[in-house]
Design brief:
The chain is α+β, with helices and mostly antiparallel strands. The chain contains 17 helices and 21 strands. The termini are far apart.
């Protein structure tokens, strides 16, 4: 062996001996300083911190009653938004009318705790960020508007009777007397927050924020809010997560549809909206089994009293919310398939709403918006405004359209026509519809909708969007444009289908242009195929409209006939043909 190699081996042996000695010495000492103690900077557990403060006794009692004290006493990873005793008492009084803690049911307690808790440890400022979409990307800074909480869907399931169900929708009538176990949505609710970085990244001003919060605070963009509650003490570091104190008890709102139904100022609009609602049996899909979960929780071992759970869904232009499709199609409890006749731009009851079928925006980044006219505004609109023509055209009692009451008269407007009014007041992006951007909000003709800050009477922050309660009705261009007579006619359905299906409405709805529109009635839609003119049996097509079709393309079909080339009269029916496109 060469001297050089001998030297190298000797060097390695020396290093090995040194490492051995170091390892031997180390093995005689504690391996790590914090093996037998906790870092002082972590403080107490979340539970111990609330105990030490002394003024969170009611919140602690909720934790104890739900047997969650052990979880919040150990190491882990939680974020908790709490309210002190005074705020707690005020919260249950304002929300539920309760004068004492003892009036709370286990369901109320689960709502309080689970919706105030996140299953990760978050410094407040970091809640505005979303995780990197893949391992090669960086976290997305300042784009997070909503977080999924620890709440379970089963926490929201209630028993609903006639007064709480849609009144003008036959799908709900079987449940008026016996009630229905209903989840207002089958997806988890989210926590909406307004944080400095998120406001900055989306160019949302302090004025915007104060309007959204109903001018309850003189808020700045540096203030932090969970729904409409201000964070007054943040980033309390505990050994198992973080505690943030709010100035009020966090009792989360429901979805947009439910907030519109229950706020007391938008009953007529809610009635219009709920014409598109349907009870869908909660069936087992993948790992989700809402009916099974509910019965295991409330009827364990009692199969005789097991209940079917339903989900309140809305007819939308995408059949499965995030998936594309013509209409919502579902199978009811009797195994009968149903398909919508009309549809909304999005499901206002979908907790995990995200804008656009093909959008890369996630539910955390954005939410929906509805401009919901109050009852006074809609009464004026339909009794002596632009909506009066709809009542006069479709009212059940033509001589006295309001004889049965305004709400019933509005109910008589066909679903496929009233949908245009409701759609016009639904916008798919909160970030694009804050008050400072009202002038850029467009109607169905892509013209300015005319929203002004003075039109907003109240803002309601729902878990899936923002509801602007307005003193104005924003009528769609379809009701007054050159296409309006086609839209409202019973004999121009084929022409109306063609205008909408081939997107001629994008041109014909323009209020800055003038058109002369000539359309054939449904009874005149004949086509004599020139290819067969010189054949012994020339062919003609008679186009028909199928009211019961389950897709746009199937709405129109053509009867194929031979015909007399002299009289042009149809002779023999050769069957039907339908379109395979839209």
């Amino acid at each position: 062996m060469s001297k050089r190699h001998t030297s190298k081996v000797g060097k390695y042996m020396s290093m090995a001996c040194l490492l051995f000695v170091c390892a031997t010495v180390q093995s005689c000492r504690d391996e790590y300083y914090y093996d037998d103690r906790e870092p002082d900077f972590l403080g107490a557990s979340i539970y111990e911190y609330l105990e030490e403060k002394g003024n969170f006794t009611l919140f602690l009692k909720v934790i104890d009653d739900l047997e969650y004290d052990e979880v919040l006493s150990k190491t882990g990873s939680k974020t908790l938004f709490v309210a002190d005793d005074d705020a707690f008492k005020k919260g249950i009084k304002e929300e539920w009318g309760f004068d004492s803690y003892e009036q709370l049911t286990p369901a109320h307690k689960r709502i309080i705790l689970n919706n105030a808790m996140l299953d990760n440890a978050y410094l407040l400022e970091l809640m505005a960020n979303t995780a990197a979409p893949n391992e090669d990307s960086e976290p997305v800074i300042g784009r997070c508007l909503r977080q999924e909480t620890s709440a379970a869907v089963t926490d929201t399931i209630g028993l609903f009777f006639q007064d709480e169900l849609p009144q003008n929708n036959p799908d709900w009538e079987p449940f008026y007397e016996k009630g229905i176990r209903l989840a207002l949505d089958g997806t988890k609710s989210t926590m909406v927050h307004f944080l400095e970085e998120q406001l900055y990244q989306n160019s949302i001003s302090a004025e915007d924020l104060n309007i959204i919060l109903n001018k309850k605070y003189a808020a700045t963009v540096k203030d932090a809010f969970i729904f409409d509650k201000m964070v007054i003490d943040q980033n309390v570091t505990c050994k198992n997560g973080y505690v943030h104190q709010l100035d009020g008890l966090l009792i989360p709102p429901s979805n947009m549809a439910e907030e519109i139904r229950t706020n007391g100022e938008t009953d007529i609009f809610s009635r219009m909206l709920d014409r598109f609602a349907v009870p869908v049996p909660a069936r087992k899909t993948g790992t989700e089994d809402l009916t099974g979960d509910f019965n295991r929780l409330y009827h364990y071992g009692d199969d005789a009293n097991a209940e079917q759970v339903y989900v309140k869904r809305y007819y939308t232009t995408n059949s499965n919310r995030g998936a594309s499709g013509d209409f919502l199609t579902y199978i009811d409890i009797n195994e009968i398939e149903h398909t919508a006749k009309g549809s909304l731009y999005f499901d206002p009851g979908w907790n995990e709403y995200k804008p656009g079928v093909n959008s890369s925006t996630t539910k955390e980044n954005d939410m929906g918006v509805i401009f919901a006219p109050n009852d006074d505004a809609l009464t004026t609109y339909f009794s002596k405004g632009e909506g009066q023509a709809l009542i006069e055209r479709f009212g059940r009692n033509v001589n006295d359209p309001f004889g049965a009451g305004l709400e019933e008269a509005i109910d008589s407007i066909p679903l496929e026509h009233i949908q245009h009014l409701v759609r016009n007041m639904m916008k798919n992006s909160f970030n694009a519809a804050v008050p400072s951007r009202f002038t850029s909000i467009m109607d169905d003709a892509r013209d300015p909708m005319g929203v002004e800050k003075s039109h907003v009477e109240e803002c309601i922050i729902a878990n899936n969007g923002l509801v602007y309660v307005t003193n104005q009705v924003y009528s769609p261009a379809r009701y007054v444009a050159v296409t309006a007579p086609v839209l409202f006619s019973d004999t121009l359905k084929i022409a109306n289908w063609a205008i909408e299906s081939y997107e001629y409405d994008k041109y014909l709805l323009s209020m800055g242009s003038h058109f002369s529109l000539v359309v054939p009635s449904d009874g005149c839609m004949y086509y004599y195929d020139p290819y067969y003119i010189n054949q012994p049996d020339p062919i003609m097509y008679i186009f028909k409209f199928n009211e019961k079709a389950t897709s746009k393309s199937a709405k129109i079909y053509a009867e194929k006939w031979t015909y007399d080339p002299v009289t042009l009269e149809p002779l023999e029916n050769k069957g039907n043909e339908t379109s395979t496109g839209t």
